[in-house]
Amino acid sequence: MPYRWTISSDTNAELRLWPHNSLPPKGFAATVLGIFALATIPLIMLLGSILLWGILPFVLLAVAGIWWALQINYRSRRILEVLTLSDANAHLVRHDPGGAMQEWQCIRYWAQPELHPDDGPVPNYVTLKGGGREVEIGAFLSEDERKALYDDLLTRLRPA
Prior knowledge:
Elements: E1 3-7, E2 13-17, H1 25-40, H2 51-76, E3 80-85, E4 89-95, E5 101-107, E6 112-116, E7 125-130, E8 133-136, H3 143-157
Antiparallel strand pairs: 1-2, 2-3, 3-4, 4-5, 6-7, 7-8
Helix pairs in contact: 1-2
């Protein structure tokens, strides 16, 4: 799962959430190299011909476009959410891809997770309510992962 609990005591814990990347860096390099190799196979027949120089820039442009699109996808998935639970407080920090930071904090006793099966922008939308605000958590997770996260939050936020 793309989230991990770090538990330091019975009441103190930290939850880190991040989006799942199905294409690791080695896979990224292999994909771009494979596309380049497959795109240049038809050019072998054009070696020694003036047509090679007319078609080669378009092949390179297509490979560069795929590389650029995959890079943009990686950058847009640089999200990190950190929920810190102490004896008295619940503190959520979201680091956006652009570097912006959003924070939410409330007294742990009043922090309450809510599951919105159909009302949110995604199925099984999970929010934390408390301190006069309601904030989303883990919206980038899959539907099953959000259900598991909700169950984990119910267990961890339950008053001792």
